[in-house]
């Protein structure tokens, strides 16, 4: 953890206050994670690439906006939105194919376990369409999935992918566990690619 902390502090500056995490201020983190989604916190959807967007549940229910941005697929990665009125509104948009992968924005969520499922849906969506990847506020879970996808599909490093998404959506704020999992995922990808080069 210390090695990760030092490298993360040098290379990428996450939006969370890491000192609170290091001091085990779980209460402060929980309050931030569970904060009510207000208009001030919900930034409109952001284009990460020509075919991939990151946003909020409000974007996913805005049929006019989805049509305007030519969105053909939506991927929900917020556990608390599954089987809700908001989710039913998303699923009722006639020209959009929707999918949910229930993730919690918590320090014990094993986000890597869900990467391949998410990547498969994103790959299918971006062949001929556009996808909105969203969570409650479009700040942590959805951003983490897109960062990981860029690492896997574009061969980007963790920091390059994180910085690319943050440049295009400055409000992203991945929790510490996601940042660590993404760093570990980078090491995994490096080993896989190194092995492929030797074969």
From TrEMBL:
InterPro entries: Dual-sp_phosphatase_cat-dom, Prot-tyrosine_phosphatase-like, Tyr_Pase_dom, TYR_PHOSPHATASE_DUAL_dom
One GO MF term: MAP kinase tyrosine phosphatase activity
GO biological process: negative regulation of MAPK cascade
EC number: 3.1.3.48
Annotated Gene Ontology cellular component terms: cytoplasm
Pfam family, one: DSPc
Sorted UniProt keywords: Hydrolase, Protein phosphatase
Segments forming domain Tyrosine-protein phosphatase: 44-191
Superkingdom, natural source: Eukaryota
Residue stretches making up the Tyrosine specific protein phosphatases domain: 109-170
Family that this chain belongs to: Belongs to the protein-tyrosine phosphatase family. Non-receptor class dual specificity subfamily.
The protein, known as: protein-tyrosine-phosphatase
Biological source species: Trypanosoma brucei equiperdum
Upper taxonomic lineage: Eukaryota, Discoba, Euglenozoa, Kinetoplastea, Metakinetoplastina
């Amino acid at each position: 953890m210390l090695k990760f902390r030092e490298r993360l502090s040098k290379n990428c500056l996450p939006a969370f206050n890491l000192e609170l995490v290091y001091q085990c201020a779980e209460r402060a983190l929980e309050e931030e994670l569970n904060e009510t989604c207000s208009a001030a916190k919900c930034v409109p959807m952001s284009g990460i690439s020509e075919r991939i967007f990151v946003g909020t549940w409000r974007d996913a229910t805005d049929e006019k906006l989805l049509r305007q941005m030519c969105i053909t697929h939506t991927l929900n990665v917020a556990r608390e939105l599954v089987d809700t009125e908001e989710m039913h509104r998303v699923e009722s948009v006639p020209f959009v194919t929707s999918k949910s992968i229930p993730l919690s924005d918590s320090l014990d969520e094993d986000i890597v376990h869900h990467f391949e499922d998410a990547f498969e849906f994103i790959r299918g969506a971006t062949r001929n369409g556009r996808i909105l990847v969203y969570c409650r506020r479009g700040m942590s879970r959805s951003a983490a999935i897109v960062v990981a996808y860029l690492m896997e599909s574009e061969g980007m490093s963790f920091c390059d992918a994180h910085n690319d998404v943050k440049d295009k959506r400055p409000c992203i704020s991945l929790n510490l566990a996601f940042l660590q999992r993404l760093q570990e995922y980078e090491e995994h990808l490096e080993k896989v690619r190194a092995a492929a080069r030797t074969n």
